């Protein structure tokens, strides 16, 4: 309680706000919102949500332990299913390990069954990291992404496992050679994750090839994160700012460097920008001034158990009036394009709009794959944009890249959407 009061006071001070109780109330309702999301049974339990709940000050221990049991059953099975399909599971496995760690679960007691062999989670992650290291050596990038590669290093490091110098070197090299991107631009989220992974190695004194080079990479990441700050305080966009501030804190930044970014996050929370549980899970820790590096010393003793889900009844959503017109242009990988038009109820999500368009039998079809962020658009008009071929369906509206997925993006005004099969 005392810690929370100090944290609140610090945050209020940094943001130039006199009222610390305002921050505490906001934090509590945001925390409850995330807790409530674990009651949903129509999606897999999400390890990132578990980590954020466990890094918080207030807890609902019964719900958290029930969630852990579901992770160990359903999420675990999903990872094994991917292994049977010969997919790499670096990022999801790393988050699973961090989630177990956040609940002080004995990692050695959990095993993955693959090719009729039983392996501990950490051993399996180490092997996949070696494989990714080879992929970078021969293909100049990991098969998954540098975001997942960083998560892998972070999970091993936080669990006290030695990370091979060759593995860490590949990440340091990628930072120095500006290879960490989301589409065409430098990826703020992945830099944040890389920063936390490399900072963990430094703090733990895990040997790297060249300590001075590690320091240079950390300084570069810090500078790039600070350079990504927009006039409104966000670093990158609304959805990367939480991780960016977390990384800066882990790297020892002073509050003054993050004050406006934290204030932007608080304004977003108030506006209701974060309703996707994955988005909440990436913002909540930093509002508690915690980072993933705190998982190293997680103790799970004498925890508060007062968090409830009696969230204030959600503000009534008024039925939207009228229809808006939507134009959907699809550009396939060979450049061929087709345009579809439809009228949809104002306020529909893009997912609902695409379903209506499909039902009209105009020739437009689509399908999605589940992910921790929700449905990822994977097939359009019978063409699949495969991540294995480093392609995806990029979505933009009136020329601006969407910052949310199809389930979260709401259409309030007439617009022209472009769905383009894009390489990355
Ligand atoms: C890497 C990445 C990508 C890569 C994924 C392929 C690869 N090389 O791994 C590519 C370039 C394909 C991509 C695409 C998009 N991305 Co992206 N992506 C990321 C990033 C940096 C890491 C994701 C990851 O690996 N997570 C770890 C693993 C363990 O979790 P996972 O759920 O299994 O990961 C998969 C999904 O996350 C999925 N995915 C990636 N991005 C997105 C976005 C959405 C909305 C969904 C549903 C799924 C999804 O691909 C991952 C690999 O298979 C995150 C950053 C973050 N903060 O999370 C942004 C992030 C998730 N992406 C984002 C966005 C907006 C998009 C796009 C919608 C951009 C666009 N305008 O087209 C598209 C998705 C369009 C579609 N077809 O549905 C936002 C989502 C914000 C939000 N509120 O929804 C994030 C948070 C970045 C940001 N700060 O804006 N992305």
Automatic annotation (TrEMBL):
Main location: secreted
Keyword Transport: yes
UniProt keyword list: Cobalt, Cobalt transport, Disulfide bond, Ion transport, Secreted, Signal, Transport
Signal sequence coordinates: 1-16
Localization of this protein: Secreted
Binding site for cyanocob(III)alamin: 144-148, 189, 237, 282, 402, 424
InterPro entries: Cbl-bd_prot, Cobalamin_Transport, Transcobalamin-like_C
Residue ranges of every copy of the Transcobalamin-like C-terminal domain listed in the record: 347-422
Keyword Ion transport: yes
GO MF annotations, alphabetized: cobalamin binding
Domain of life, source organism: Eukaryota
Disulfide bonds: 157-200
Any single GO BP term: cobalt ion transport
GO cellular component term of the entry, any: extracellular space
Entry's family note: Belongs to the eukaryotic cobalamin transport proteins family.
Protein name in the entry: Transcobalamin-like C-terminal domain-containing protein
Organism encoding this protein: Onychostoma macrolepis
